[in-house]
Amino acid sequence: MRFDYTDKQLAWRDELRTFLDREVSDELLEEIRHGGSDVRGPLVTRFRKAVGDRGWYGLNWPVEYGGLGLTAVEQQMLIDEFTARGVPGPDLTATSVAPMIMRHGTEANKADWLPGIARGEITCAVGYSEPDAGTDVASLSTRAELDGDEWVINGAKIWNSIAHIATHEWLCVRTDPAAPKHKGISVIMVPIDSPGIEIQPLVAWSDLRTNLTYFADVRVPARNLIGEVNRGWSYITGALDLERGALASAMQLRVILDDLMAFCSTHLLDGVRLADRAEVRHRLAALDADVEVARLLNLESASLIEDGQVPTIPATEAKIFQSELRQRVADWGTQLLGMYGQLDWHDREAPLRGRIERLYREAPLMRFGAGANEVLRDVIAQRGQGLPRHDR
Amino acid sequence: MKLTLTSPQIEYQHSLRQLLERECTVELVRSLRNPDPAPVPPQLWSALVRVGFLGLPFDGEVGGEGGSLLDLGLAYQEAGRVLCPTDVYSTMAFGLAVDRLADDDVRKDLIGRIAQGQLRGTSALWHPDGELDRPAVQARYAAGRWRLSGRLGFVPNVEASDYLLVAAQTSEPTRPEQTVIVLLRLPAEGVTSSRVMTFGRDSQFTVDLRDVAVTDDAVISRHDAGSAEAGSVHWLRNADLALRCAEMVGGAQAVLERTLDYVRTRHQFGRPIGGFQAVQHQVADVRIGVDGARLATYQALWWLAEGELAERFTVIAKACCNEAYKRATLTAHQLHGGMGYLRETDLHLWSERAKVTELTGGAVDVQMRRLAGALGLGATA
Ligand SMILES: Cc1cc2nc3c(=O)[nH]c(=O)nc-3n(C[C@H](O)[C@H](O)[C@H](O)COP(=O)(O)OP(=O)(O)OC[C@H]3O[C@@H](n4cnc5c(N)ncnc54)[C@H](O)[C@@H]3O)c2cc1C
Questions:
Q1: Whose CA is nearest to atom 3 of ligand 1?
Q2: Nearest to B356 by CA among B86, B98, B139, B121
């Protein structure tokens, strides 16, 4: 056990910081602020290429797959440093899709997809959810049927984030409608520009664009099926475990909280220094304690992965704890700022450039997305604590 | 002691609900939002006149309906359900202040026109977070005129208002400081406003007063701290807060109903999601919060209508409503999943209003500070 970075890790952090000092410009940050994570402007594209050129999207992959052979802790450090600067790190394609291809894919799958993902050239929209299959994603009904050496796909995916900027779709489909629902699912890589795909925008409260994507007689080569047919459910759940881990980085909250503390200590609002109020100090202190716990839960997961274990329970705890903490940071943050807490980033006087207000709108998604917290609480109680299953 | 509404009150709420559902649709609510809001349509305004909403709490002799503050609260509750344009609230707050502070001629003139839907007003008599500190505006007296200077934050609907009622601190070399309440006809020379960009996309403004000259006629009240008139301002502040609470109760109830409709019909795992215990518990918690907030609000309104300051009851109501409305919206987001998170499905309109109404008049820390004061625990109100 060790609560501090090793010299090697500190050197890694320095390397990351030097890179970020060089590559992150005000113009890049402005492009991100205006676009959000659903827009890929020229500067973001250039930044992503610089990251890809270093192989950092696959930094924790084995060397044989084009990775750098570093560990989950180093990946977490990269995500933290990138988040602290407000620039995008590896997306789900690198952190969730690629590991599943390594674990379950055929040799052809690995050769087809991993090198491009490591370089950041392949990015996938993640197609699990459907209008009638949300939390119960195993009831998905998008169909794929084999016709000669091609899969023919029909159906619809909702909340299909980044489909409009991705190169591919990591698409979950039903390949055996007769089998029990968990046993007839497969995963297919679909080039997003295939004929028959139609992408319609949906706009979320956070201003983020997501999509409703239709598939009508979309044809892809048989070799694009990942691993074995009808075995997809375990690939999805594995990928979702990793997705939860990736979502749970506490760094975004740490940065916002630090900035909020600095604001309360230095700025005057209507002549008052907010940190002079006891209740403001107490709330900031309480949030600090929780953000610290969120960080520890994350680091425990990363450490378990480094030991070769699957951190289902700590990662699930981290996801629940952090998504609810996120809501609390945003809620208390707006309250501490009083009337100014409602100003959005369009207003010049908005504290922290409206980031707290935006966080309030971003927060709900993390609670119901990637596994609703209710269901994840069942996971902790039942798989983690051995309590009896209740009927679902 | 009896904590139920009378049948006329229930009937009035019911008819108002039907009217507002017809006249104040979500499409209308959307059209009024920043950055370029449409004006409130005359049709909605005349409907509110027709049902007596705008004259509700005022005496018959000044052109009102002779209802109580509680009656107005019941109307606010209905308005809150449908996210009624905030012009209604700012005009009513203005009217209540004029009614309480101005002389009979001014009252008859202005209240009559409010009740007839011919006048809109807004006011800045206390800090927007509800604190009754020294006014932010200074009033100097020179050559037979008052000159007002200062900056007011977060004043609602100034640009659509015919009048602004503002509190100012006098500074005269020979006399102790007093508060004056000044009625400004808009537009007025020296008064400028700029729209602030808010989460709720509602119309709030920063108002700058630069040497705004008014005669003594415009001063409807001039008083010392601790005087009866200062008590009137305190009462007005509490009345405004309690009415806001009623709006919040209505909003929270609407969100709860929407959520119930959704969890009854949305199926996952082969059953309505409302059948899951974890969902039911969340719904029950929202319900408990809303009912507590509703009773606390009615209590505050009732005592205010009796003429009491109702400091403790008002603060309790606001603290409850802040949490109840917000929890209703955040729970609704959780239970709606992706569907509630889309802009086009409208839930966010209530979520934003819940946050704005929480901050306006003070979030929970402000309320607890005041409550501790009301309980004699040391701090001042
Ligand atoms: C902006 C955004 C981006 C997204 N991006 C993606 C993406 O890229 N790819 C993708 O595949 N999906 C994506 N999602 C989908 C997301 O993961 C789903 O919204 C989530 O799985 C919940 O599904 P649902 O919205 O259908 O809600 P529902 O399944 O209808 O659930 C609604 C609520 O019901 C309750 N509930 C449901 N089941 C149970 C139960 N068994 N026990 C107790 N309570 C229960 C929970 O409170 C839950 O929050 C995104 C969603 C949004 C809004």
A1: A159
A2: B86
DSSP state of B97: H
Q: What is the pTM of this model?
A: 0.96
Residue A252 in tokens: 């975004």
Question: Per the residue annotation, which of A169, A243, A317, A357 is the catalytic one?
Answer: A243
**Residue A318 CB contacts under 8 Å (≥ 6 apart), including other chains:** A244, A245, A248, A294, A297, A298, A301
Residue at A251: amino acid letter: M
B116 touching A (Cβ < 8 Å): no
Q: What are phi and psi of B357, to 5 degrees?
A: -70, -30
The torsion region of residue B210 among left (phi > 0), alpha (psi -120 to 50) and beta comes to beta
A159/B35 Cβ within 8 A:
no
Distances (CA, A) of A335 to A348, B323, B327: 19, 12, 14
Residues B158-184: tens digit of each pLDDT: 999 999 999 999 988 888 999 999 999
- CATH number, domain A124-231, options 2.40.110.10, 3.10.50.30, 3.40.50.1100, 3.30.70.1150: 2.40.110.10
Condensed to tens digits (0 to 9), the pLDDT of residues A276-305 reads 999 999 999 999 999 999 999 988 988 888
Domain boundaries defined on chain A: 7-90, 124-231, 248-384
Residue closest to B71 by CA, chosen among B305, B249, B232: B305
Question: In 3-state terms, what secondary structure has residue A177?
Answer: coil
State the burial class of residue B372 (Cβ atoms within 10 Å of its Cβ: 0-12, 13-18, 19+). Answer: middle
Q: Indicate yes or no: CB of A335 within 8 angstroms of CB of B363.
A: yes
**Which band of pLDDT confidence, cut at 50, 70 and 90, is reported for residue A72?**
confident
Cβ distance of A134 and B351 shorter than 8 Å: no
Residue with CA nearest ligand 1 atom 24: A134
Residues from chain A that touch B278, judged by Cβ atoms under 8 A, are 374, 377
Nearest in space to B138 (alpha carbons), one of B80, B179, B83, B185: B179
Domain A7-90 in CATH 3.30.70.120? The answer is no
- Is A22 near ligand 1, meaning CB less than 6 Å away? no
Residue A176 phi/psi, 5-degree rounding, is -140, 95
Of the partner residues B129, B276, B326, the one whose CB lies closest to the CB of residue A338? B129
Round the CA-based radius of gyration of chain A to a whole number and report it.
22
A212 within ligand 1 shell (Cβ under 6 A): no
Residue A242 has pLDDT above 80, yes or no: no
Specify the fold of A248-384: Butyryl-CoA Dehydrogenase, subunit A; domain 3 (1.20.140)
B145, B122 Cβ separation under 8 angstroms: no
CA of B334 to the centre of ligand 1 (A): 9
User: In this predicted model, what pLDDT tens digit does every residue of B121-131 receive, in sequence order?
Assistant: 999 999 999 88
Residue B93: is it exposed, middle or buried by C-beta count within 10 angstroms (0-12/13-18/19+)? buried
Quote the ligand 1 centre to B208 CA distance (angstroms). 47
CA distance B321 to B244: 9
Residue indicated by tokens 């790190």 = A89
| Alpha carbon distance A93, A307 (integer Å) | 23
Ligand 1 centroid distance, CA of B27 (Å): 27
Reported in sequence order, the residue ranges of chain B that DSSP labels E, i.e. its strands, are 121-124, 137-142, 145-156, 163-170, 179-185, 191-195, 204-214, 219-223, 267-268, 271-272
Distance, in angstroms, between B217 CA and closest chain A CA?
31
Interior angle at CA B81, CA B79 and CA B87, nearest 5: 35
Segment B311-338, tens digit of pLDDT: 999 999 999 999 999 999 999 999 999 9
CA distances from A139 to A9, B48, B127, B342 (A): 43, 49, 54, 23
- Prediction ipTM score: 0.95
Measured CA to CA, the distance from residue B342 to residue B29 in angstroms comes to 17
CA–CA separation, A68 and B268 (whole Å): 42
